[in-house]
């Protein structure tokens, strides 16, 4: 295999694996930037995957080719509503945010599998008939070199993920709303004094993370898993959380980290047959995202500094 | 006013009741009979000696992971990595248990110590990073969980077996299994581990409440800065807390490796023993006795749930939902406390 063939086989696979991680990690950025730790990303993805698959199976005949898009929309809405539980517990009830996140993970999986058994009579759903298909972009795919790399055999969701990452960056850093959201996560009391509703901002941020986690989960389900069961989402949410931190709580950083993790995953999938890479034991590629996150946090790859008020419930009137 | 002690007992009890009630509501709304459902759960955990044995078997690792999480909590740390520590403990115990044969009096303790050391090592790194660099332990321990999962799977395939999905069986001299306990419980997988677990709970109580080291650990958990000014070495205590916590979780893994299974299979996903340990510790108020009691509750729920589909046609995942809700209620104790005080005021 020539070097170009190798790159050509890696890049689309990497983009394919990273799309769900990018969506979810962006949600995590919003939540954590507002000061709410979100260990529940995993659960939000589970919910997204469940809703995406169920919607797809139920309405495949009605909506035809538009079904997968409507499925992720439905997953977005439901996961966003589901995430309110996390917001209520950690913002209003002053629960430990990590504990509440853990409970979200339990609850999503429990509900998902319970309802699957309830509605389908078995532990997993059928395969969906209308998943996302990869396609060649007209004209662009004919461009030499770049065409095969970035525009052939691609999933639209991968482009969407990258596009939304830039939108998230714009919202967080270039709009008044973004400034408020970040200020609530850095110094809620100062924000409160300036007339920003800390609780409302945090609710909104958590719901955005729910929406994005829902999209991430459903995209994973409709591009990679194709059905829902207990083991559809195993760790992708935590990997997204790692991407949030490795990306230093910045939307574009999180996207970069998610792309890198997707790249690492794709290497472990297609490494066989690629010279040099096939000699590396798979285990190193499997644990790479986690090891790198630890190194990043320990300051070996640039210091990762969390938002100041991350994880602390805001209690009005306390100093 | 309610006393604090009363609150500490009331809140877990109320949370469990609310969780079970919510479970009943869910059963009703899906057309099941909640009484039959909970009856099946009860029969599935205490209905006969077999189920009873299985319940106690499940309680054993829960006590360990609950102690692990509780111990870290008391020192002001959140050890979400009990899961990974269970896995490396399991691996280490099976490794030592299977690699040679010897007198039980040496072999079994050696396998247990190996598990504790492996778990301690897995807790040491997050502790070190927290103490020296101020890195939050939650994220590090989550990452360590995945590293443990993948590394142990690889080791099972390459070192502990010849490219198979389970490790070799441990030799009898390292086994916690007991033929009379099994016979007595109609051949459940009950093993001597429960005694080790109860002993560990006593150790934790004694260590935290009756020794200077325990006092320092609790003091650091209450207020880092005050402890620092009082001359305690905060960093050392953080590392120590994570190491001991990891050792408890590692022993929890040994219960599975030396007791329940006698080998270690590769895992495609987590065992959930460590994550459930968080629930056990929270509900148990992070006290040794509380942990034992709530481990019994969660073991009962988990094993009883398996009987719910057969006897009452209710999917066993209902129990997962109930457990998640219980965690929510305990975590939101602020609102329960508020509601109780409110009720009390209006009652006057």
From TrEMBL, chain A:
What InterPro entries would the database entry show? ABC_transp_permease
Q: What do the Gene Ontology cellular component annotations say? A: plasma membrane
Q: Does the keyword Protease apply?
A: no
**Main subcellular localisation:** membrane
Keyword annotations? Cell membrane, Membrane, Sugar transport, Transmembrane, Transmembrane helix, Transport
Q: Can you provide one Gene Ontology molecular function annotated for this UniProt record? A: transmembrane transporter activity
Q: What is this protein called?
A: Simple sugar transport system permease protein
The protein's superkingdom reads Bacteria
- Give the organism's phylogenetic lineage: Bacteria, Bacillati, Bacillota, Bacilli, Bacillales
Membrane topology recorded in Swiss-Prot or TrEMBL: Multi-pass membrane protein
Q: Which organism is it from?
A: Sediminibacillus albus
One Pfam family named in its UniProt record: BPD_transp_2
As for subcellular location, the record says: Cell membrane
Q: Which residues cross the membrane?
A: 6-31, 43-63, 69-91, 98-120, 154-173, 203-222, 258-277, 283-301
Has the keyword Transport been applied to this entry? yes
From TrEMBL, chain B:
What Pfam families does the annotation carry?
BPD_transp_2
Tell me the first and last residues of the signal peptide. none
* Gene Ontology, cellular component aspect: plasma membrane
Q: Which UniProt keywords apply?
A: Cell membrane, Membrane, Sugar transport, Transmembrane, Transmembrane helix, Transport
Q: Where in the cell is it found?
A: Cell membrane
> Which GO molecular function annotation, any one, does this entry have?
transmembrane transporter activity
Regions that span the bilayer? 7-30, 50-73, 80-98, 104-125, 190-208, 238-261, 273-298, 318-340
Its main subcellular localisation, reduced to a broad class, is membrane
Q: How does it sit in the membrane?
A: Multi-pass membrane protein
Q: Which domain of life is it from?
A: Bacteria
Q: Does the keyword Transmembrane apply?
A: yes
Q: Could you identify this protein by its name?
A: Simple sugar transport system permease protein
Annotated source species: Sediminibacillus albus
């Amino acid at each position: 295999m020539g070097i170009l063939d190798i790159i050509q086989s890696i890049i689309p696979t990497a983009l394919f694996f990273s799309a769900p991680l990018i969506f979810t990690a962006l949600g995590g950025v919003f939540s954590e930037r507002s000061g709410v730790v979100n260990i529940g990303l995993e659960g939000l993805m589970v919910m997204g995957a469940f809703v995406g698959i169920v919607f797809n199976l139920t309405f495949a005949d009605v909506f035809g080719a538009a079904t997968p898009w409507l499925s992720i929309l439905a997953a977005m809405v439901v996961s966003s509503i589901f995430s309110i539980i996390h917001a209520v517990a950690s913002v209003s009830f002053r629960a430990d945010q990590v504990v509440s996140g853990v409970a979200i993970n339990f609850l999503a999986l429990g509900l998902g599998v319970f309802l699957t058994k309830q509605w389908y009579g078995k532990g997993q759903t059928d395969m969906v008939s209308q998943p996302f298909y990869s396609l060649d972009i007209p004209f662009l795919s004919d461009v030499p070199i770049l065409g095969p790399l970035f525009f052939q055999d691609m999933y639209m969701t991968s482009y969407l993920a990258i596009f939304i990452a830039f939108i998230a960056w714009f919202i967080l850093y270039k709009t008044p709303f973004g400034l408020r959201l970040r200020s609530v996560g850095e110094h809620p009391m100062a924000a409160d004094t300036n007339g920003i509703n800390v609780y409302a901002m945090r609710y909104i941020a958590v719901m955005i993370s729910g929406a994005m986690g829902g999209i991430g989960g459903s995209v994973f389900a409709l591009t990679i898993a194709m059905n829902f069961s207990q083991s559809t989402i195993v760790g992708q949410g935590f990997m997204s959380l790692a991407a949030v931190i490795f990306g230093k709580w910045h939307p574009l950083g999180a996207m970069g980290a998610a792309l890198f993790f997707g790249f690492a995953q794709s290497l472990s999938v297609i490494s066989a047959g690629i010279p040099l890479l096939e000699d590396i034991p798979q285990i190193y590629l499997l644990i790479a995202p986690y090891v790198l996150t630890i190194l990043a946090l320990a300051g070996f790859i640039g210091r990762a500094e969390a938002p100041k008020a991350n994880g602390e419930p805001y209690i009005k009137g306390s100093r | 006013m309610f006393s604090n002690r009363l609150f500490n007992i009331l809140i877990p009890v109320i949370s469990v009741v609310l969780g079970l009630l919510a479970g009943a509501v869910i059963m009703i709304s899906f057309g099941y009979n909640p009484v039959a459902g909970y009856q099946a759960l009860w029969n599935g955990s205490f209905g006969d000696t077999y189920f009873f044995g299985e319940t106690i078997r499940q309680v054993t690792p829960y006590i360990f992971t609950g102690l692990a999480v509780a111990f870290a909590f008391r020192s002001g740390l959140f050890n979400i990595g009990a899961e990974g520590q269970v896995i490396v403990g399991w691996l280490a115990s099976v490794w030592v248990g299977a690699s040679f044969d010897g007198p039980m009096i040496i072999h079994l303790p050696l396998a247990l110590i190996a598990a504790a050391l492996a778990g301690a090592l897995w807790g040491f790194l997050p502790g070190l990073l927290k103490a020296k660099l101020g890195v939050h332990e939650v994220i590090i321990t989550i990452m360590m969980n995945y590293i443990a999962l993948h590394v142990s799977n690889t080791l099972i395939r390459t070192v502990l077996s010849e490219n198979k999905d389970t490790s070799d069986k441990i030799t009898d001299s390292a086994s916690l299994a007991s033929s009379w306990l099994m016979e007595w419980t109609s051949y459940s997988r009950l093993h001597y581990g429960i005694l080790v677990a109860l002993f560990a709970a006593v150790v934790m109580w004694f260590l935290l409440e009756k020794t200077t080291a325990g006092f320092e650990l609790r003091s650091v958990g209450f207020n880092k800065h005050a402890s620092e000014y009082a001359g305690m070495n905060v960093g050392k205590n953080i590392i120590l807390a994570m190491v001991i916590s990891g050792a408890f979780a590692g022993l929890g893994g040994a219960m599975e490796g030396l007791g329940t299974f006698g080998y270690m299979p590769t895992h495609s996903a987590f065992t959930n023993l460590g994550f459930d340990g968080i629930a056990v510790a929270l509900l148990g108020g992070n006290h040794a006795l509380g942990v034992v009691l709530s481990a019994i509750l969660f073991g009962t729920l988990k094993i009883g749930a398996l009987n719910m589909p057969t006897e009452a046609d209710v999917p066993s995942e209902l129990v997962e939902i109930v457990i998640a809700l219980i965690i929510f209620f305990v975590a939101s104790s602020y609102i329960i406390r508020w509601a109780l005080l409110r009720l009390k005021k209006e009652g006057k």
